[in-house]
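Dear support,

Our group has been running a series of protein-ligand predictions, and this particular one with fructose -6-phosphate is the one our PI (initials K.S.) wants archived with full inputs and outputs. We had some confusion internally about which version of the output was final, so please treat the block below as the authoritative record. The input we submitted was:
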Amino acid sequence: ELGQFEHYMLKEIFEQPTSIENAFRGRLDDDEATARFGGLNLDPQELRRIDRIVLTACGTSWHAGLVGEYIIEEFARIPVEVEYASELRYRNPPMSERTMVFAITQSGETADTLAAMRECKRKGHPTLAICNVVGSSIAREADGGIYLHAGPEVGVASTKAFTSQVTVLTLLALFMGRIRHLSYPAGQRMIANLRKMPDKIRQTLECHNRVKEIARKYYTAENFLYLGRLHNFPVALEGALKLKEISYIHAEGYPAAEMKHGPIALVDEQTPSVFVVPRCQIYPKVISNMEEVRARRGPIIAIACEGDDKVAELADDVIYVPDVDEYLQPMVTSVPLQLLAYEIALLRGCNVDRPRNLAKSVTVE
Ligand code: F6R
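Confirmed final output from the archive:
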């Protein structure tokens, strides 16, 4: 089943061009420039009434939710909150009857996510699942939902499920946007861009050899910082989580500008900072955050767009990714970070598919 790959994690990273395609297959409606879902089980009137969305999840799925928050708010102009399921289940925040809830989960069995979802459902909110495993507890108990169709994810560290969750949340932003503020041509542009993503991921995966070299240079470090802004802030969190989980290196993700409010104290010659810095509206601001780290002699690994010479000057090592619109960047920028975690864990002799202390689905509270 592993084929040419040494581990499930690597196989699943390389499946992403296909798994992303499977997430949007049959769901793009060119005539109406929108997305279509078979299983939402809500009629258009009900959907139009929704004035707030709560996304609830744990771990990597929670990071996908953060990306979703940015994209849904941008395109659908609906306020979104992302809640840790473990907190939401006990927190009881005020939620109007027009709030729709999505539980995001690869396994569909995560105990906290299930409990948070049950609590929202009990209160009468439309409660849906964005889920990979068909027929799982969360998929069965939700009022409706959207499957990822990513195929089985065996590696304990979630990879392809993340990019599929982000794809589905982008489709949701398109769909909710088109029943509100998003124009027909804007919807068409999103569809055309989404169709290009499998190829963009294929191109991104070509960085594998470069990532191996970088891993050899840094694998003995004991601390890493991951920094990004806007859509790439959740990517920084996710990159740090991947490294922690499988290589047991301490890593923290931050919005890059938060550095100066504390974490910059950690920067020294032994602490690499991974900057996720593709071209974006506030690119110059991220560059100045890089300069702050460099001034303190912190090694910099950058994820940047092809041909970015400015970043090449500032960083010690650069991994290039294709240039895509900002809202689509997390799908490409997360890939080199998955590979980096994988290669570093291998060099440290860790069991990448079955890291210590972790289980594929967390069915206890
Ligand atoms: C990280 C990871 C975990 C899961 C989390 C939620 O690589 O695998 O953080 O993302 O336990 O799991 P699901 O998505 O199955 O609810």
